[in-house]
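TEACHING EXERCISE
Course module: macromolecular assemblies
Task: Read the component lines below, then compare them to the predicted structure of the full complex.
Student: A.B.
Group: 4
Components provided:
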Amino acid sequence: MTTVGDVADLVRSKNAGPFWQTLDVFCPDDEAYRAVAEAPGVDAETVARAYRVDPATVRIFRLPAIRVVKISFPRPTAQGGIADRDMHAGQQHVPLARLPLHP
Amino acid sequence: MPETPTPETRVIVPAGMLGAGFTAEAVERGIALGGHAIAIDGGSTDSGPYYLGAAAPKMPAEAISADLRIMLTRGAAAGIPVIVGSAGTSGTDTGVDWVAGLVAEIAEEEGLALTVARIYSELAPEAVVALVEAGRTRPLPPAADLTAERVRRCAHIVGLMGAEPIIAALDAGADVVIGGRATDTAVIAAVPLRAGRPAGPSWHAAKTAECGGQCTTNPRGGGVLVIVDDEGFTVDPLEPTSAATPTSVAAHMIYENADPNVMREPSGTLDVTDAVYTALDDRRVRVTGSRFTEQAPTVKLEGSGLIGHQSIAIAGIKDPEVLASIDVWADGLRAFVAAKVADVLGLGADVVDVQVRCYGWNAVLGELDPDTGPPREVGAVLIATAPDQATATKVVKLANPYLLHMPLPGMDHLPSFAFLTSPAEIPRGPLYEFLLQHVVTVDDPGELFRTEIEEVGR
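Instructor-supplied answer key:
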């Protein structure tokens, strides 16, 4: 099954302040961008399941001009707290990259 | 240079962070291109809650001084101001004084006479309690309403200044502005805003340049010059070998920003939805269409408080039999150690937290990890968090033989794992947490900040 990571140039993640994380999918061309932006497997419900967060908090931005799909949601645990595993949220992109475009 | 139809304000941003390092040549190129100020961000929350909680800087003094020396000597020679924000990583008062002290040292050594403004942004917890009680704080998602109890758990609290206190310091004649916590953009936007350029291009230029070369195709290749005029702004990389492209500039707006189109500042909101990015040539980009809407001013708060103290120990595991059931092993060890702590030390889970994180297995993603199958090797990190350092270390000492020898259920022998160190226990220090995701409503965007001006050097 083709995944987000298969068609993207780069999938990355980072804190957006101590209480949010944001994931960026950079696509090499318009075809790849449309594949991700229109993928039934890349919606708030699916992302929320992959990250075990409330789907109502997942924000998805589609930016065709720069061929980026951006996904932001509150961190399940605040940056640097006792339960945090990733100080900069720099490795949180992997579950997104593994999502199949057509589950 | 061709005549320009409108006045321009040019800001040299040599790097994304004070102490990251840059060349004198890059700053000199910005000055040769007519830079009106050198501005740089000195910190953020990105390195975690320790730096604010402990009021300690992330970077060594030598790295900060090396960058300051280039900016101060070149800035003074050109007669343009140097602006630093979020001094000392978190922008606490001690961070401002620390950086101001380094500036004074360099001024003496280099024979510079400088007017230095220190802008303090730290707020005493009781002052914030008063704001809470006056109904002047509001939560930002995902936070709940702020309580006095939560404020009092903070060891240090800072407010994020916008451009206004920086503009006031420059108006007062400062050659050098050392700001406490500021928005990453404020140190840059203050320069064009003070010169009367419109807010949309000023804030968008500042957001584009705030991480230095990150908005270019060579993110590690030095800083940028941003040129703001009445219609828009231009990005010109300071390294001749670096290039800005419409995509590299547009893409920076999404970096570390939850919403790629809007960004709240103390005085209003930048909206780049309709921004147009055009290549001027193969290395410079022109941006127009950025909008800024003034709003009732707010100041965002950051606060960090102590959770406890931690000690850790690290054991390497290579035994394939243990690795095949690493989750069972880790859960078993954690439960066993927690029971020992309760039994021998009389401390329950409400006092001592014990975790086992298996690097090489799922330490980074935990339950979210999409990978299955046994790892090749694991670094098992046992983490004890307790109210004080001595207790945390005692817990790890108590756990030592079990971290070394914990068998899988049903094993008929005691394995021995590969400890990294002797002693195995490593006191790690205090653990802090971020506690505030709130804003204060203010009448005047500068009212929570205090400025002191002094003459230093020759």
